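Structure tokens please, single chain.
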Amino acid sequence: MSGQGPMRVLAAMSGGVDSAVAAARLRDAGHDVTGVHLALSAKPATMREGARGCCSVEDSRDARRCADVLDIPFYVWDLAARFREDVVEPFVAEYAAGRTPNPCLRCNEKIKFSAVLERARALGFDAVGTGHYARLSGSATGPTRPVLRRAADPDKDQSYVLGVLRPDQLDGALFPLGDTPKAEVRAEAAARGLVVAEKPDSHDICFIPSGDTRGFLAERIDEAPGEMVDPSGAVVGHHRGVHDFTVGQRHGLGIRRPAPDGRPRYVLGLEPVSRTVRVGPVEDLDVTTLSGADPVWLVDPPSGPLDCVVQVRAHGGTAGATVRVTADGVDVALAEPLRGVAPGQAAVFYRPDGGGDVVLGSATIAATA
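Here you go.
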């Protein structure tokens, strides 16, 4: 989004360095900026555990301190109920169904660029600005279709977790950090006197600050014991529920008998109806085709085969591909195998030319082969 002059912008401030510098840049660009911290937990922890989680009381205080330094209005919005309904509960349900969701994608889709954007527009704001690392061109109020691109810093690129957004959602977004390496963002924060300049990044699921996803799910999903079988169909172990596993997992399988060839076993597939966990050698994780549901397009939906680059994980997991639109979604044929692709993940499609950095669309992976 660019070129429309000063706007009223709501800056989402998590309490971290990225969103603080983003808010500062929006203010310096001449926009009328108001900071908002999203309270997403009904019972937030008092303190963060290093780089684990976010949305703590400490984060809220840090966001307020940064807003004070920037001399912008600041508010806290309680979206805990909406977050639980749209992100946490679907996350648990997906694991119970044997799929592997990415809650950051759903938070962007359902919270930051749905609930927050809707409320912001209702209050007269033109756009929502965040500290995401992605590049965006196009206008919030003009006729130009928004174009989402990878960030200049490939190690911090977040275009994948934004690839599920619709054009109308991106049309109301601003990402001021897309052209800047992370090291420069921290240096800028220090130069501005922001207390979060050296604050660790959050790397875990924000609503599981302990990092113990298995324990979190065990408190919310009843045990459903079943068998672990190898490619021959032989039972090699037992488990408490398919929600304890993800496709590609190697450690923590609890299989006491080694494979006949002595090689490690990996989770190949999860079958919640039969309560079966399929395990086998690493090469059996390779997939060459996948089907996707609920596609979202930032370009006109293709009427024929679409050559692209597909990405199936937030970092890595890319391959050349051909996408075909079907009655149920999309079919994707990979030019080379990808390993450990799990249903429930997102497949984000990028334009193959120009460095493969322009997002074309996305779909939720429904099945692989």
